[in-house]
## 1
Amino acid sequence: MDLLLTSAPLLARGAATTIYLSVVAILLATALGLVLALVQLYGGILLRIVVEVYLYLVRGVPLLVLLFAMYYALPYAGIALEPLAGGIAVISLYFAAFMTEVFRGAVLSVPAGQWDAGRAIGLTTPRILADIVFRQALRVAAPPFVNTCIMVVKGTSLVSIIGLADLTYVGKAIVERTLAPFEIFGVVALAYLALCLVLSRLGRRLETRLNYVH
Amino acid sequence: MSVDLGFITRIAPTLAQGLATTVALAIPAIVLSALWAIPVVAGLMARSRLVGRITADYVELVRNTPVLVQMFFIFFGSGVLGFPLSGFVSALLALVLQNGAYVAEIYRGGIRSIAQRQAEAGVALGLTKRKTFAIVVLPQAIRKVIPSLSNQGILIIKDTSLAATISVAELTFQARLLADRTAAVFEIFFTLALFYLALTAIFAGAMRLVERRVRIA
């Protein structure tokens, strides 16, 4: 108990880093994911191929490998990123691929008949997209979007390996000095659980809002 | 900066050793996750509310905590308890505990998507509930979940890289050692990425073969 009390401020600081990383990475991944999904759906063939290759690479290579590549290899290319900025960049780029699939799948799930209906009542393509397709796609996208956000929060734990003092890093550092892995990693796990549960609670509220029928 | 192809052929043997360990970790992790998910999905769909509650809590817990923290918990925790597990076993356990929960949800989705009308049809034919499940629902559900299983398997293959952090000498671990010793890190990580791409592509291809094999014409 004493140990947990003395470790609490350190763990709290680690949690703050984890939350900061998660929020920034979720925002960036969502924005990039939206853009990439739109490119995939409505972009030219060349752009689509570029995005497809990008998605393929990210799907097949572990996040840890990408983090190491950023950490070890980029400086040789003359790009030296701060660990924090680099971590955020890699995590955002990685999960942007997952977000792309979420948004693309959601838009494609809207039946083609909805397009015909929009045209039949004389709407222009942008209006059909905004008022009919995207509005319905959002409802479909909400649950997998929340799942991906949870994956981002869990994924941020990997920055501990490149030396960023997030929750996992702080937990491991304390365990190495105190040899109390159950207490410390238990608390760390519970902190992640709490973060993710808050996210899924928010997600459920978002879903009920989106499912509200005018 | 130029990419040195000769160098890649020199590091390939070291990486190949790591590859062997990665495969030796990934295969049991995938197979055991698929097997462990069977009792988990049985628990999730159990009639007993207590069993359902406990299983659901387990699934929530492991799905909402990073697999890296679970690995550390098992690896460092087992040492303190007096029966130190190797990094390999700790990583395998963590991967199976986490992915078993994900796969159980996949199974549940598959069973749910078949169950209602097909089960009614089975009962209408005079089959018992058990028989309906075994010969009507299950064969269709298995076919339905193969693409999702394939995706989960790819995630497992990628997550085996985390074992590097508890000093399992798999692919990423070997690559990092090489990167610490040489200046040609670009070539190392390029090759490393290719190895993972090849692994996941082979696995995805194999799963597509299975899918085609069991498809009903």
## 2
Amino acid sequence: MAACPYSARMFHWREPVAASQDQGSEYNVELNVPQKKGTISKCLFSADRLRDGMLPYCVSACPNGVFYFGDENENAVTNGTTKETVNLKELLEQNGGYRLMAELGTKPRVYYLPPKNRIFEFKKGPDTEYKEIT
Amino acid sequence: MPDNMTGSVFGSEKYREKLDLISSDILKNVGISKGFIIWMGILFAALAACLYAYSLQLKIGLGVTGLRDVTSWGMYIANFVFFVATSLVGMLISCVLGLSGATWVKPISRIAEIIAVAFAAVAGLVIISDMGRPDRLPYVFLFGRVQSPILWDVSVVTTYFVLSLLLWLFPMIPDLAVAKGKLKGQPAVLSKAYELLSFRWIHNEEQYKIIGQGVRILLILIIPTAFAIHTVTSWLFAVTPRAGWDSTIFGPYFISGAFVSGTAAVIIAMYFFRNSYKLSKYLTDSHFDKIGKVFILVSILYIYFNINEFLVPGYKLKAADAIHLRELFTGEHAFLFWGVQLFGLVIPVLLMLFRSVRKPLPMLFISIIMLAAAWLKRYIIVVPPQAHPYLPVQNVPVEWVVYKPTLIESLVTLASILLVLIIVTLLSKLFPVIPIWELAEEEAKKELKET
């Protein structure tokens, strides 16, 4: 928990809400279920879907098509919305792709593309401050 | 420890005489008494309440604490660091000072060992209280990976505990042999324990030779182990890339801090043992004066590492460090930070420079304040760096970000302190707290030299 600089992990501080629906089944590493109190989870890029040759849930569900997913070795990524497969290296080079905190040496394989061709005015959202939800 | 095994001392009449004299003094207050029963009763009652709090944590989960995904290490880990730190004093007093030939530490070396044993034993339990699945503890040993600092930590803490326990027990064997016939009005269990733990000691010169060598080996072994346990504890933080923990001097910074909290604990124990067990003949004002000087030395060393730890990143002010340091120097934790540094470190050191302060009572007050400050210092080291992770925390409830210890958490932490008090009381009240034969040897030697 404390060691992850990306805050990409979460802990089951109490009995997980959805724990009962998988109760009794054998632990599935790819799905991270059944969830257990007192254990850690993190995003596995929907490993169960990948095994079946499908894109992760979040990628195929995003209506704005902002996610590309693929195999770095194949140098190809696919957009979940338009189903368009593009060359990863070219995509990153032509759009100024970058990684978060690559200088920490954790070799992250999530790339980000800076915004371009905005069609509406950008409003500054929550930046470094956390907001209290009431 | 016998540095010069002349052999003649242990066979001499003088030694026997001194052994009788000192043992009758020391053993007067050893054993179960009314005060002991009442004190232990209070401790166990309080412990039961605290264990109830822990049972709630076991049932509901770590969610009963103030810990959340952002600040996932809180009071428990701070407490763990504090316990490991305090236990290190056994190494400082018995090994470093003892091996360097400082004979004045002899009467307090066993006190230091008791502190080491109690704090090291409970440190291992404290870490379990922070585990989400304590039932999986054996997995650390069964499936532990050498790359994991957790495995390093568990291995060295257990090793240090075992070595400290041996260093407490081993030099006490002759004392128990002396004491086993002299206990009056004590339950048979205690004399049985003495009988068992004195391992048929017959005050043979050959036995003294063996014990001298054995103790020496233990003393030497404990030094690297003690360095290892606290260095590894510091590495639990220093190997993460977080601002505030990402420091190359964390090892020595923690070890120097450990000497401060440990010395404070020993002085507090010395004061109470001296009063409750009527030991002012053996724990003299001069001992408080001398350990006061040791206290000054280790505190100045710690101040030096503090300056390094905060001034250097404070000069560079790298973005992430700057956020963390601003919180400490002028922000949310400024009150705690400056309070601990000034009242828990700098001002006590300045006060102790005066000879009149290095007396038992003022030393007790200073030690209590410094020990409390040492605990809070661990809290400052552990908690604030987590509130500002590299990636911004967005759109979450404020209590997920700002760590506030809960009552349950505080009670579980209190349980660890009660456990230490229980162990210290058991070891100091049921067994001779001052090394009898070592003092007898020293006095006999001194008098034989004079004649």
